[in-house]
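TL;DR need structure tokens for one chain.
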Amino acid sequence: MASAKSQVPALVFVFLDENVSRGRVEKLKSAKVPSKYKLEIIPFPKDMERIAIFDFQVVFHLKKRILNRCYGIHQLLYRNPRPIFIFLTADKKFISDAKDGFEIWIKLGNEKKRRRYANRIKLSEGDITFSLDNGYIVNVAKRLIKGGEDDTQQMILDKMIKSLEEFLKE
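>> reply
TL;DR here they are.
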């Protein structure tokens, strides 16, 4: 008789932009997602919230959080099942602003900086992609949380939960 093999759930890292990182974001874990996933919520850092940073700098922060060994995510990249990365934002222009910021930043930088980042970070309306030296690709799905200026924190939280449930449904 074959034994039932317990499946390790895929870790789903949910990164929050500063415009959706207010309130009780730990409630995002209440999203009804299949048991094959385990949510890890990563709010926007409070210390970065106080300073105005550009969207391309948020992309650098995402890259650092995923690829820097000190955060504990990098070692999980090669595990099976592969982790899933999601970035939630309410900024409709996040990708275009980040692209514009990168272009200016690279133009103002030196040639070494241009070569280092030009082909390693790709931005599209649906995702952010980081290419590693070994050819490994990390995709971060970008999900837009649509709402109005009058939305309460609870309304935004409900929209984020719905977005996660839709994205991770079987």
